[in-house]
Design brief:
With about 650 residues, the chain is of the alpha/beta class. Among the domains are: about 130 residues, 3-Layer(aba) Sandwich (Rossmann fold); about 100 residues, Golgi alpha-mannosidase II (Immunoglobulin-like), CATH 2.60.40.1180. About 35% of the residues lie in helices and about 20% in strands. It has 20 helices and 27 strands. The strands form 5 sheets. The chain has an 8-stranded parallel barrel with strand order 1-2-3-7-8-9-10-11, surrounded by 5 helices. A 6-stranded antiparallel sheet has the order 12-20-21-27-23-24. Helix 12 packs parallel to helix 13. The radius of gyration is 26 Å and the shape is globular. The protein starts with a helix and ends with a strand. The relative contact order is 0.08. The N terminus is likely disordered.
Length: about 650
């Protein structure tokens, strides 16, 4: 009997240890923090079903508290205790490389006046110092500076403040936009910073003088590419050091980075790369937008790019959560705020990302508190469906190459997104594969979307993958460059796969299990779909488009060449996005409906009707669906070969569908 009890306890402990921590289940809202409003925060949190309380008194980003943080530290400690007493978790905002001095115009002291050498500079020596009106959060008379991460004295004080905050018992430290200054007007093309500390660090690392030895903005210049690498690595090292200081004091405290770049070129410009940062922090909050800044401003093409980016975040994160600080509505006249909130929330959920509700374009408030409470309560009741691990079944992989993105961002990202658009719109299981996950990828097809820069290790793992009777799709100059962006004499992918002759033109070989395209179908489709989207937005077309025909032909060739077999299919409009995965042992589809969406005009999808769903399953399985903000419904099923089938009468915003 004792052995049975011990075995049960061990099983229970193991099962509990596999449950994701609180960061995977948050439903976030932001709040300014002071000693006088903690009770008000807790009241609002309870009323609107918030779990994961963002608070902001910004010790490091305000010069007075950077120098003397004690008063704010005491408030953070009280906030943490109140959140824990309510069974909740809270995290506190700090600025990354920004600091504001209030009323600097009336004071003899300010950050810049006291420490001009700590501030980032452009190549001509112009300091990154700004005044009121430069950004909406900078008040008249205030001084806003952006600091060099290599200013050692500042960094020492900063890390001390990080340790002090972690010691309060707060559940997380939220580091806002740790960037090089390239995002204010007239700084976009500076590739900062060229302050003395940063220039010296680059010289020590590479032997190069950043001011004289590189061609700024020229990616064909090897020295400039080293500058690009250096800037990205610097931000990663900065965030890694923050996390080390956090964990040294409070191992349970989470390090959270907020960045706005998606997977594309913006990451290279500001130096904050989602792929690399996920390895050094616990969570990334993505203040990401595409097409329009809010949900009310996107058309279906933008939404599919938005979904592709979120799925990329999730697969780069691996077992870590992704929080979405994105905005629903900011005054658009023809749109009801609550409807924009629903469309944004359903997109986040179906991608497996966490929702952050905010008003307009700021971190706090809400466009509709009643709708927030409704959405958050429904998410709370159904959170395991969306936030437990999504295990791949037989996905078609799309390879994300950060080095290719670093040096060839525009063409590569169009190719990358285009392939994902086609797979989502054709409702095929997919997964974004990276160099961290390539060796474990078990899908039977892998697409390399013009992945120009590949390492020897990547080539060896691709060879191993190919030798296991899997199929490869590659195009353009895949493998033509090394991971430093250096061009090579030949395309190494053919040699790595053991193919006898390099094909300079498109080639499909069912026997050899590979497809080579001279031009990327992903890039071509992205451009066609974008053009068709503009035409559709003008109301100039209703029928099939060139992009539709292109997508159908590409997918047909893909399935036929590799005899691809899926674990689940749907027959639905290409305006319905689908992800297929196994969740808690159940084959599950996540469907998001963008049919009828018109930017700035309509955010309520046209209902998708009579959708046929098929799961490969035993004959005794049933199919259950749950529409967004709805209850579960058991569907009438029939058996068709190895598949259990059902028809979904209607999907409005989106739905999760599974077999059990």
């Amino acid at each position: 009997m004792n052995r049975i009890i011990i075995s049960f306890l061990l099983y229970s402990v193991a099962a509990f240890s596999q449950q994701p921590d609180w960061t995977h289940f948050v439903r976030i809202a932001g709040h300014g923090l002071s000693a006088n409003n903690i009770e008000q925060i807790m009241k609002s949190v309870k009323e609107t079903n918030v779990f994961g309380i963002e608070t902001d008194n910004d010790i490091t980003g305000r010069y007075d508290s950077f120098l003397d943080p004690q008063e704010k530290l005491e408030v953070i400690k009280i906030m943490a205790e109140k959140a824990h007493a309510a069974g909740n978790h809270s995290f506190v905002y700090i600025a990354g490389l920004e600091c504001i001095t209030a009323n600097a115009d009336k004071s003899g002291h300010s950050f810049f006046k006291d420490h001009p050498d700590w501030v980032q500079r452009d190549i001509n020596g112009r300091p990154a110092v700004f005044g009121g009106g430069t950004a909406f959060w900078i008040r008249p008379g205030d001084e806003d500076v952006w600091i060099s991460p290599y200013a050692e004295e500042w960094r020492k004080i900063y890390m001390q403040r990080v340790r002090q905050i972690a010691a309060t018992g707060i559940d997380g430290i939220y580091v806002d936009i740790p960037y090089w200054m390239t995002h204010f007007e007239s700084w976009e093309d500076t590739w900062a910073s060229f302050d003395d500390y940063t220039v010296a660090a680059f010289k020590e690392k590479t032997g190069l003088n950043a001011k004289t030895d590189l061609k700024l903005g020229d990616f064909s210049d090897a020295h400039f590419r080293k500058w690009v690498d250096f800037r990205i690595q610097t931000i990663c090292d900065f965030m890694r050091e923050i996390d080390e200081n956090v964990k040294a004091v409070n191992p349970d405290c989470k390090t959270i980075a907020e960045i706005y770049p998606g997977p594309g070129a913006d990451a290279v410009i500001v130096g904050a790369d989602v792929y690399r940062l996920y390895s050094v922090v616990d969570v990334i909050t993505h203040e990401y937008s595409v097409g329009g800044y809010t949900a009310a401003e996107r058309n279906p093409f933008d939404w599919f790019t938005f979904m592709a980016a979120m799925h990329t975040f999730r697969d780069c994160a691996q077992d870590k959560p992704s929080w979405m600080l994105t905005y629903s509505w900011d005054g658009q006249k023809n749109i009801r705020p609550a409807d924009a909130m629903k469309l944004l929330a359903v997109s986040h959920l179906m991608a497996g990302a966490n929702i952050w509700d905010a008003q307009g374009h700021v971190m706090s408030g809400s466009n509709d508190y009643e709708m927030r409470a409704k959405i958050f309560k429904w998410v709370e009741n159904n959170q395991n469906k969306f936030y437990l691990n999504r295990k791949s079944i037989n996905p078609i992989g799309v390879y994300f190459s950060p080095e290719t993105r670093d040096y060839f961002a525009d063409s590569y990202m169009e190719s990358f997104y285009g392939f994902l658009h086609m797979l989502m719109q054709k409702h095929l299981e997919f997964k974004i594969v990276t160099s961290r996950t390539l060796s474990d990828f078990s899908g039977s097809i892998l697409i390399l979307p013009d992945a120009k820069c590949l390492s020897n290790r990547e080539l060896q793992e691709l060879k191993s993958y190919y030798k296991k009777e899997n199929g490869l799709v590659f195009c353009g100059e895949t493998g033509r460059y090394d991971t430093s962006g250096k061009p090579l004499s030949h395309n190494r992918i053919f040699a790595a796969l053991g193919l006898k002759k390099e094909k300079e033109t498109s080639y499909i070989s069912q026997k050899d299990r590979y497809i080579y395209y001279q031009d990327s179908p992903g890039e071509l489709y992205y451009q066609l779909a974008q053009k068709d989207s503009i035409t559709a937005a003008r109301g100039e077309t209703d029928g099939n488009t060139t992009a539709d025909d292109f997508r159908e032909n590409f997918i047909r060739n893909l399935i036929r060449t590799f005899e691809y077999r899926t674990a689940g299919t749907i027959e639905a409009s290409p305006f319905v996005s689908m992800q297929l995965a196994e969740v808690d042992g159940k084959k599950t589809m996540f469907l998001t409906n963008f049919k009828g969406i018109r930017a700035k005009q309509n955010v309520i999808p046209e209902a998708a009707k009579n959708i046929t769903v098929r799961f490969k399953a035993d004959q005794d399985k049933r199919i259950i669906m749950q529409g967004f903000l709805e209850e579960e419904k058991v569907l009438e099923t029939e058996w068709d070969g190895n598949f259990v089938c059902a028809v979904i009468p209607e999907i409005k915003w989106g739905a999760v569908v599974w077999s059990e």
